Amino acid sequence: MPSYLVLGGGIAGLAAVDAILDLDPVASVTLLEAGDRVGGKISKAQVAGCTVDVGAEAVLARRPEAVDLMHRAGLGDEVVHPTGAPAQVWSRGRLHRLPARTFMGVPADPETLRGLLTDEEVRRAGDERVGATDEADVSVADLVTGRLGRAVTERLVEPLLGGVYAGHADLLSARAALPQLFEAARCGGSLLEAVARLVPSPSAGTQSRAGTPVFATVRGGLHRLPAALAARLEERGARVLTGTVVRELGQLPGGGFEAVTGPRPAPTAYRADRVVLAVPAAPAARLLRDLAPVAARLLGTVESASMAVVTLAFPSSGMGALTGSGFLVPPVDGRTVKASTFSASKWDWVRESGRGRAPGGGDLTLLRASVGRHREEAALQVSDAELVRACLGDLAEALGRDLPEPVDTHVQRWGGGLPQYAVGHLDRVAAVREALAGVDGLTACGAAYDGVGIPACVASARGAVAELFGPAGTMGS
User: Which position among 77, 167, 202, 393 has the lowest Cβ density within 10 Å, counted as fewest Cβ atoms?
Assistant: First the structure.
């Protein structure tokens, strides 16, 4: 019976175990996670007596992988979608509704941007400068700005990129971050027309992506998913071990692999025929230094962004009405907060659950704010109290009123939490995979490769596992 080691207990590692057991239900599978829990960037904390997400809070529902995993974890009846409260952009001192027909900030119709952009900026966006390119890859800014003007990049694309990648349009790969738009531009097509095809009008009269909820989560919080999935995997025979840091990974003389954990004076070794490496780029590079030095060198060049999620619990009586589901912030405006979520406005289950009680028995209103972008670590090099004060100041200014004193606060820091897809990223990933292909029985997956979102990580895991099995679904040689 073949044996497998999965290194890393984030959503990619858990999905990899699930995929292995699908293809070989009697396989011996062990997952080793360095932290004290599974889930990676899907995490929870207690704030004012409420259990809240302090990492990822939702998944892209227009891709099937993450919602399918929720069903496989036994949470299918608990899948919920956001309310109709619109997303907003806090730009030039005002909250503006984010136009519905945009794709990562690129509009289908520039006229819908009027108010958010000036009349001249709208005119420039509508005067798209179309032309083919033979570049293998360009930055998002190079793709969008030259065609639609700098304002579209600064006021729309940048806030969306900040929310997904914590990155910047000048540095992120268009081919990786906006593949459909990059391909349209490469062929000489219009970005505006490409978005119109990708995000059809609700009046189109056909069943399309426009009728599919964009996001989903689990009632009670996305943090329920990793624990539920891990429990299901253990029921199916997998071992899921936390608090187990892998120091070394090597090949055995007779075939197979050995992962060494524990203190050097008293190490513990885990052996298996096949290994799935589901850890971030930096630890993957360290573990592959001897096994696959070319892959290690390439992974060592992947930069990452650090960020923090600040959760604030307010007495509802002093908050006043909240419009929309939250807001995104263009970095050009120089704010500390890059995004904020109005949790009870965004999710019905939060409002209906009576999330905690304020002193004196009143209801609580929970807000969360995100701070931190790539190469802007200085914004995070302050105390938790200073981060909270900065977020309170930005939120008060965005809402146009003084806020009550929060009942409780929580700061969750994610150091190096988001890999950055620099120009040429897809070629780098292809080279990594080519190098790993030279080590029989070894593959890798996760956010550093095929997309930072949860559905992309699940798909990355399934693809990596498929590489270990032949085309007929049997053990690869």
Answer: 77
Owner of token pair 């190096």: 416
pLDDT of amino acid 162: 95
Q: Strands 87-91 and 79-80: what pairing? A: unpaired
Which residues of the chain are modeled with pLDDT < 70?
Answer: 202-212, 352-362, 470-477
CA gap 255, 397 in Å, rounded:
62
Q: What does residue 128 show for φ and ψ, rounded to 5 degrees? A: -65, 135
What's the rounded Cα separation, in Å, for the pair 150 and 144?
Answer: 8
How close are the terminal C-alpha atoms of the chain, in Å? 14
Euclidean distance between CA atoms 147 and 169, whole angstroms: 14
Q: Please say whether the beta carbons of 362 and 316 come within 8 A.
A: yes
The backbone torsions φ and ψ at residue 312, rounded to the nearest 5 degrees and listed phi first, read -125, 130
Name the nearest CA neighbour of 374 among 210, 70, 140: 140
pLDDT of res. 357 = 52
Distance of CA 359 to the CA centre of its chain: 35
Can you give 127-155 as a three-state secondary structure string? Answer: CCCCCCCCCCCCEHHHHHHHHHCHHHHHH
Cβ atoms < 10 Å from Cβ of 81: 16
Which string of DSSP letters, residue by residue, matches 201-270?
-GGG-S--GGGS-SEEEETT-TTHHHHHHHHHHHHTT-EEE-S--EEEEEE-TTSSEEEEES-TTS-EEE
How many whole angstroms separate alpha carbon 413 and alpha carbon 295? 29
Spell out the alpha helix ranges (H) of 2-64. Answer: 11-23
Q: Helix, strand, coil proportions of the chain in percent (round to 5)?
A: 35, 25, 40
Task: Return the SS3 of 117.
Answer: strand
Place of tokens 């964009």: 214
Residue with tokens 């999330």: 355
Q: Which amino acid is present at 144?
A: V
Q: Determine the Cα–Cα distance for residues 66 and 89; give it in Å rounded to an integer.
A: 27
| Token reading at 440 | 């029989």
Report the pLDDT value the prediction gives residue 132, as an integer from 0 to 100.
83
